[in-house]
Amino acid sequence: MQKNSTPRVAFIGAGNMAGAILRGLIQQGFPADHIWAADPGQDKLDALAKETGIQVTTDNAEAVMAVDLVVLAVKPQRMQQVLQPLQTAFQQQRPLVVSIAAGLTCATLQGWLGEALPLVRSMPNTPSLLGAGVAGLYATAEVSDQQKSWVEAISQAVGEAVWVSEESQLEAVTAVSGSGPAYYFLFTEALAAAGEKLGLPAELALKLAEHTALGAGRMLSETPETPAELRARVTSPGGTTAEAIRIFEEQGLHKLVDEAAQAAAKRARELAEELKG
Ligand SMILES: NC(=O)C1=CN([C@@H]2O[C@H](COP(=O)(O)OP(=O)(O)OC[C@H]3O[C@@H](n4cnc5c(N)ncnc54)[C@H](OP(=O)(O)O)[C@@H]3O)[C@@H](O)[C@H]2O)C=CC1
Ligand SMILES: O=C(O)[C@@H]1CCC=N1
């Protein structure tokens, strides 16, 4: 990203997801002096400032007033309480607002911001930390082309970005890629535990499971084959993989994954309903 076209960005809430994005941005060469983080945790902020060189504050309004783009990165349940005291700062500064909160709709957020502001909903994921994130994006009508290009550039600096045409599609994005890293981590935990049960030392089983996830992920992203084609190459007829796949299929893996994703999307819709003003 060119420095002269680089927006100044503030993260309201400096937790897991904001930390992953802002560290990813800095690793990709985004200027640290263009980044603010606001959070009640002074020790957390001090450590982050020392590590990254960004500007930090416990005063959310100070961060809003200093930037062109504000990323709302607090828990959905905390958002209303965070936004209402910031209405004056938002109206004065009129930054682009990017909410990464699961569930909360543009209509609810605009109500809490007090007046229609350019607003993007983004659903990123934690691999942003390593430049391997993927974010689903949805923009309201107030968002200019330049502001869209800022959000794309920031999202692409830490991974891939895709625009969805309907806001409701973000609940599906949340269920697939927002929460998705945790599914792969859970599978890795389960595979490592199975390896241990088969007689491997715990550390070795974990290393094998982790490195297999890395290799499989790289093959998925770096080769043109579909997941099914890649799977077929591992699965020798009458061999070991076929036996394992048979168990996954007999036990209903597809149904299980479908139910899990449905539950995640349902929870996103419930959050929206529970928290709307
Ligand atoms: N984690 C993930 O993988 C993803 C998360 N998201 C979304 O990102 C958002 C943040 O999630 P996550 O990073 O996991 O949560 P965290 O709890 O790690 O981060 C939230 C941060 O906000 C801080 N905070 C609390 N109150 C305020 C306040 N009044 N002003 C400023 N900051 C405050 C919290 O401090 P304290 O801890 O002291 O309360 C914490 O540091 C959520 O809305 C979530 O839906 C989206 C995609 C993926
Ligand atoms: O679990 C959550 O609610 C957040 C949103 C997607 C990933 N983490």
From TrEMBL:
Its EC number is 1.5.1.2. Signal peptide: none annotated. Belongs to the pyrroline-5-carboxylate reductase family. One of its GO terms (cellular component) is cytoplasm. HAMAP family: P5C_reductase. One of its GO terms (molecular function) is pyrroline-5-carboxylate reductase activity. Residues 8-103 form the Pyrroline-5-carboxylate reductase catalytic N-terminal domain. This is Pyrroline-5-carboxylate reductase. NADP(+) binds at residues 12-17, 73-76. The gene is proC. It comes from the Bacteria. Its main location: cytoplasm. PANTHER family: PYRROLINE-5-CARBOXYLATE REDUCTASE, PYRROLINE-5-CARBOXYLATE REDUCTASE 3.
